[in-house]
Amino acid sequence: MKALGHVFKYGDNVDTDVIIPARYLNSFDAQELASHAMVDIDPDFAKKVQPGDMIVANKNFGCGSSREHAPLCLKTAGVSCVIAETFARIFYRNAINIGLPIIECPEAARGIEAGDEVEVDFDSGKIYNRTKGTEFQGQPFPEFMQKLIKAGGLVNYTNSKKKKNLLYKSTRNAEKTVTASEAILKGLAEDGGLFVPAEIPKLDVTMEELKDMSYQETAYAVMKQFLTDFTEEELKYCIDRAYDEKFDTETIAPLAKVGDTYYLELFHGATIAFKDMALSILPHLLTTAAKNNNVTKDIVILTATSGDTGKAALAGFADVPGTRIIVFYPKDGVSRVQELQMVTQKGKNTSVVAIHGNFDNAQSGVKALFEDKELERELNTAGYQFSSANSINIGRLVPQIVYYVYAYAKLVQNGEIKTGEQINVTVPTGNFGNILAAYYAKQMGVPIDKLICASNENKVLFDFFRTGEYDRNREFILTSSPSMDILISSNLERLIYSIAGQDAEKNTELMRQLKEEGCYKITAEMRKKLNDFEGGYATEEETKTEICETYRSTGYVMDTHTAVAAHVCRTYREKTGDNKKMLVISTASPYKFTKSVMTAIDETNNTMEESALFDGLKKISGMEIPDAIEEIRNAEILHTGECGVDKMKETVRKILGIEV
C-alpha cells in the first residue's frame, strides 16, 4: 500500500478548528466540509489539493476539540496521508477510524518542504522525498490498520465484514471464483468463458430514493453491489472522474420524449456513442483493480471493434500510465466518421490496426489471442498482461446496468410513470451486451416487462429468439448500422449460461458447437426462460424510412442504429397491442452516421461532401456539431496499420516490441 503526492506544509499546533472551522459544522455533507478545509490558514487549499497530496506539519497536529469532522474533511478533500512530528492523541484515533493514514516522523516533518513530491510505503514505513532524493524511516503500518484504511475506515471495514462479497465465475467453469477486480483485470476467463456474477443482487435502495439521485449517485448505488472488493472511496473516485465535464449534459443520460416513446440518449459523452457510458469508467476501474491486486506488469487492452467501442476505448485509455491499447477494426466495416475518430487518436500508448475482414473475424481473432498460451508466456516475459475493453469484460457490462435503473427512476420523477409500473425496453444490439445489461437491471428489481431485441439485416439474434436456434452460417451483410453488423454475439453466452440453470458443462458444449459447426439449438426447457425477450429486425429500407418519417412528423433526428430500434418498437406495438410505456435506447449521435442519416431524410444529400453534411445536419436538427466531430475535420491521420486476420498475433508482437 503506497501513497504519492505533493506536500502542503504547516507549522505547530494546527488545531481542529483550523482544519475545519466550527462555523461550517452545521453541515454533515463530507464534500461540503472538504470545500472549507484549512480555509483560515490556507484559503485556496480546497482548490489546490489534488487526490494523493499530503499534509506535513510540525508538533501537536490536530489538537483542540475531538471533532471527527477534521480528519474526515481532509480525507474527502483528497489528502492521502498526514505526516507530523507529533499528533494530538484524539486526532490520531479519529483519523485511523475514518481511514486517513497518519505518520509520526520528526525527521521527515523537518526534512520535507511545501511542494515536494513525496512517496510513502505503508508496508515498510519508508518516506521518500522524490524532489530532494532523501529518505526517512517511519513506523510500518500493521496489516490490520492497512485493511482499515483501504476499507475507508472502521465503519466501512465492519460493514464489509457483514456484507456478502460478490464473486464471479466463468460461464464454462462454475467451480473457480474470482473477485470483481480480478475479473476486470483478466477480461476473459482462462477457459475462454465470460465472467458472470455468482448471483444478481437486488437493489438495496427504493425507487423513491433513486428518483432524486444524480447519475453519479445512481451509479454508486448500483455498482457497489457488483464491485464489492472496491472500497466506497475507490468506487466514488472512479465514478466522479468518469461522469464529469466529458459529457455535454449534467444529466449524463437524458430522456427525450418523442410522441409516445421515450428515447434514452446515451451519446452525450466524448465520442458521441453509448460506449462512453462504460468506457469512461473502465480505465479507472482497471487501474484501481491493478493497484489493489499488486499488478506490476503493463496492462495491454486488446480490443476488437465494429466502430464505437474502438474510439471510446482509445479515448478512455490514451496516456493512462501502465497501459497500452491495441484496437482492431474491419477496414470496410465502419463508417467514415468512426474510422477517422480512431485513426486520428492521439496517445503514446495507442495503436489502431485495420484488418482485412469483418467484425466477427476481428472479435474471433482477439479471443484467440487471449487464449494463446505461447503469446501469454511471451507477454509475461516482456512485462505485459492482456485485458479487454470489449463488453466481454464485466467491467464494461456493470456500468451499463446503471442507465436502465437511472432511466426508470427519472420516468418516475418526471411523472411519466408511477413507481412499480412496468415498462418495455427496446435495444438495438449486435453483441448483446447492451440488452443483457437491461436483463440484469430487471433481475435487480427494475420493473421492466419485455426486453425487445432489435437487429438489422444481420438478424441472427431475431432468428434465435424466434426458433431457439443460433446459426451464424449465413451471409455477412454490411449495413448503414455497422455497430450491429455482427453474427457472433459474444454476450449471448452469458444469457445461455443463465437459462441453462448456470450449467457450465451444458453451456460449454453449446459454445463448442458454435465454434466448430457454426450453430447450436437450445432445449425446450431453456426456451421457456426466454419469455422476457422479444425479437425484431429492420431492413435497410425500413431503417431509412424510420429516420425520414420520424424527422418529418416530429423534427427528431436519430442515427441509424436508433432507427432500427424505433422501427422494431413500432412494429412490436402494432403486432401486440401492448400499450406499456416504451423506452428506446438511442445509442449514437446522428452526427456519427451523417451521410446515412441525411440521405435517408433527402436522397439528394447523397452527393454532398462529409463536411457539408455536418453543416446540413446542424441546420435541420438544431443540434450543435459535437466537439468529437469538429476535432476530426482537420485532424492528422496517425494510425495507418493494416493486417490480415492470420497476422494479428504477429502484429501484436511487433507493436509491443516482442521478439521471437
Automatic annotation (TrEMBL):
Q: Which cofactor does it need?
A: pyridoxal 5'-phosphate
Q: Can you give the residue ranges of the Threonine synthase N-terminal domain?
A: 168-243
Q: Which Gene3D superfamilies match?
A: 3.40.50.1100, Aconitase, domain 4 (3.20.19.10), Threonine synthase, N-terminal domain (3.90.1380.10)
The PTM N6-(pyridoxal phosphate)lysine maps to: K275
Please provide, alphabetically and separated by semicolons, the GO molecular function terms listed in this UniProt record. 3-isopropylmalate dehydratase activity; threonine synthase activity
TM ranges: none
Q: What is its EC number?
A: 4.2.1.33
Q: Which reaction does it catalyse?
A: (2R,3S)-3-isopropylmalate = (2S)-2-isopropylmalate
Q: Which residues form the Aconitase A/isopropylmalate dehydratase small subunit swivel domain?
A: 47-103
What are the record's GO terms for cellular component?
A: cytoplasm
Q: Which UniProt keywords apply?
A: Amino-acid biosynthesis, Branched-chain amino acid biosynthesis, Leucine biosynthesis, Lyase, Pyridoxal phosphate
- What's any GO biological process attached to this entry? threonine biosynthetic process
Q: In which pathway does it act?
A: Amino-acid biosynthesis; L-leucine biosynthesis; L-leucine from 3-methyl-2-oxobutanoate: step 2/4
Q: Which domain of life is it from?
A: Bacteria
Looking at the record, the residues that make up the Tryptophan synthase beta chain-like PALP domain are: 264-587
Role noted for this protein: Catalyzes the isomerization between 2-isopropylmalate and 3-isopropylmalate, via the formation of 2-isopropylmaleate.
Note the NCBIfam families from the entry: LEUD_arch, thrC
- Quote the subunit structure annotation: Heterodimer of LeuC and LeuD.
PANTHER family in the cross-refs: THREONINE SYNTHASE-LIKE 1
Provide the family line: Belongs to the LeuD family. LeuD type 2 subfamily. Belongs to the threonine synthase family.
- Report what the protein is called: 3-isopropylmalate dehydratase small subunit
